[in-house]
Amino acid sequence: MSILQETTFKNLDERIIYFTIILTYPLYLIGGLYLVGPILAWILLYRSLVIIFNVKIKIHHLSIAWIVSILLIEVVVVIGSLNTGHSILMTIKSTIGWAKGWALIGIFIFIGSILPIRYYIFQRAIINILWQSLLISPFLIVVAFLNFPTLLYISPLKFFGGGGEQFFKVWLYWNDSNTGLPRWQLFAPWSPALAFYALLALSIILPRPSDKTKYVALFSAIVLVLLSESRAGIVILLMLIFIYAISYFFDVIFILFMMLICCLLFGVFLNEIVEGVSGLVNYINSMRSKSSMIRQTLNDIGLYRWYSESFWFGHGNVERGPHIVQFMPIGSHHTFIGLLFIKGIIGLLLYVIPLVVTTLYLFIKSFIRRDYLSGFFVILIFFMYSFTENIEILSYLMWPGWLFIGMTLRACFYDCHFNEIDFEDNGQVFVVPK
């Protein structure tokens, strides 16, 4: 199998990315994942700036838009903290939180557009971690049904993290309080985050030429989604499969025609569709009613306090909710509401505008080259999970997805396939038609 073949690197950046990904499990076991993500981002940003200052390089305008938006979010954080009356120490703490959270989103998109990292190396790393996960999963399933301890230990590295001990816990599995059945999260901080990562990985490897290695990796990604038992993960997986099947079997003209028909039908049967979707949402929520109630209560608290207390720039800092939501941070289960509460309407727009524009851009580009469909899938996954997860706090783990968006934007800029992009020793891009 090609997964066992020796990997040939052309530069240090490829080595850093490759080994950081394939060493995910060792890093998880020592509690280092939460620390490595931000460190990696800032080191690679420095290396990207070195290339920019030494080589005349072209950068996609959306990559620049993302990094500017993320920098402006930091300005909003400072204004929100000062408006709310927080001390300088709390404002500095908020800035550190931004540097290891929101900053990573813009940084990884930016460096994905600049650093000389070949898609060939990147997808091999993703496939490697999927294969590792597939090999580990049977063992974790067995120990769950043999009633082994759920939590192994909490890494002492939590002292350096500051994000909560949840990111430094090492689990074999955990038992769902609603169903009593085991759920798995492997190297993720919680089960839905595992499905999130698996869907990103599945999308990233789609442009790879079809072979047994790819098929096994795709199977592994699907297994991880199922093991997580994440409702959102399963729904998004089915949606991606449907979109991929449509794009595979039908041409662009037919798809556009069907989209037009669907829009017309949506307008005619709007009330019936809304009632049907509402019924489906209620059914899905009833599967874990306690979890859904906590999410909804957190969202209600976040919206009320944002609108009544700090509309424009937010509160500037994370605050824990009351006992009824098990003291979970307000906005922690919804990126958009979390943005409103902490960074106000200005902060929300600084994330939503580049997110929506990039989603639409890659959607249109996916009609031109099927390679770009994978980039559209990745940004669509981030968009969908913004309604159920805190994208910022998971950026330390989901950074390969943001990096891949940057790589996709670079491929779009040069109007070529991922595997046609290569680099000179100084980082200059050149396209090799294949």
TrEMBL record:
Subcellular location: Membrane
Keyword annotations: Membrane, Transmembrane, Transmembrane helix
Protein name: O-antigen ligase-related domain-containing protein
Pfam families in UniProt: Wzy_C
Domain O-antigen ligase-related as annotated: residue spans: 217-352
Transmembrane portions of the chain: 16-44, 64-82, 102-121, 133-154, 187-206, 218-246, 252-270, 336-364, 376-399
Membrane topology: Multi-pass membrane protein
Organism this protein belongs to: Photobacterium piscicola
Native organism taxonomy: Bacteria, Pseudomonadati, Pseudomonadota, Gammaproteobacteria, Vibrionales
A cellular-component GO term for this protein: membrane
Annotated InterPro entries: O-antigen_ligase-rel_domated
